[in-house]
């Protein structure tokens, strides 16, 4: 082929590639400010090589904690002692696996729901105890619990199945990552991976259009499972879901007069969006889609957001910068009112229910300690709640793992 012909072919190919790229990115750019960065959802997220352990906690983070505990430094030593003294760290625990876990609304009926969640938290607790204390009995007990479930469970059923799968599926990979990559032997780790792939991932990977904490917990499970399985497609899908859901869960004033709607939600009128936001029609920086429901469910959503961002950071693609403004405003807004500031009548009719729970450590450490945001209300609440324990659903021991952790 002659040189001129080659040049024309190359030029045509380049033009076609540019046209295709424009076709995919132009809709994402519609309505964005001039000069705004392209929507990152079109970019690949999964790392070329996964980091292990790499779900919520990394080896450098674990080493930091271990050194602090060995030195008797606070708040880590107190948090560690609290963890070891609880039932989740018991070396006499007997797992209670079921073939089918059936969870109705608010876990009614509750056939294995509490048992599954608490066994998963126990496995994670024991894996932390193993790594920090280097006592192999804790690793062996964690393995015993994970093996018991991977040998039995086949399904989750009833109305709360997606949320239940999200909660337990968020916790199992944390434990599995630590044991598989720091302990000498786990013969049934492959079977455990098969359980995550066949029982958990199909239930959570497509998300939910229920309240936002559902989809965020499900997405947390999906990204953790993807790391353990080294499944790049599942990882990318989870990150895309995350990027669509976070702006639809936390409002900032730059969104305009109304909060954003999650992709595929079908919410396309003002009345529908206000109804979805629990009837709240006045919007402010950091307001959550569930603020006017109660702070506890809001805490579930904020916790899952922090966990997903933390895992992505460990895996080499830091999602915190994308969601930092939303998350810092949300933590600060809710912390302020939980600390006792009078709630204005424009916010949920002047009354907020419940509390966030032990969910602020991960986000506070990332945004304040690593990124340098001033977060006085969040700091006050976080330090007041130390050592943060477990919410008995999918959050556990985050003062131990993330307080002041620079890694």
Task: Provide tags for this entry.
56% helix, 407 residues, two-stranded antiparallel sheet, 3-stranded mixed sheet, disordered N terminus, 15 helices, mainly alpha
Please tally the β strands and state the result: 5
Helix/strand order, N-terminal first: HEEHHEEHHEHHHHHHHHHH
Beta-strand proportion = under 5%
**Largest sheet, described in full?**
3 strands, mixed
Provide an overview of this structure:
- This protein has 407 residues and is mainly alpha-helical.
- It is 56% helix and 3% strand.
- It has helices spanning 3-29, 59-70, 76-85, 113-133, 136-150, 161-182, 189-204, 212-229, 232-249, 270-276, 295-314, 320-338, 361-370, 376-384, 398-402; strands at residues 54-55, 57-58, 100-103, 110-111, 155-157.
- Helix 2 crosses helix 4 and helix 4 (113-133) packs antiparallel against helix 5.
- The longest helix has 27 residues, at 3-29.
- The N and C termini lie far apart (55 Å).
Short description:
The chain has 407 residues and is mainly α. Helix content is 56%, strand content 3%. It has helices at residues 3-29, 59-70, 76-85, 113-133, 136-150, 161-182, 189-204, 212-229, 232-249, 270-276, 295-314, 320-338, 361-370, 376-384, 398-402, and strands at 54-55, 57-58, 100-103, 110-111, 155-157.
Strands, helices and their partners?
Blueprint: H1 3-29, E1 54-55, E2 57-58, H2 59-70, H3 76-85, E3 100-103, E4 110-111, H4 113-133, H5 136-150, E5 155-157, H6 161-182, H7 189-204, H8 212-229, H9 232-249, H10 270-276, H11 295-314, H12 320-338, H13 361-370, H14 376-384, H15 398-402
Parallel strand pairs: 3-5
Antiparallel strand pairs: 1-2, 3-4
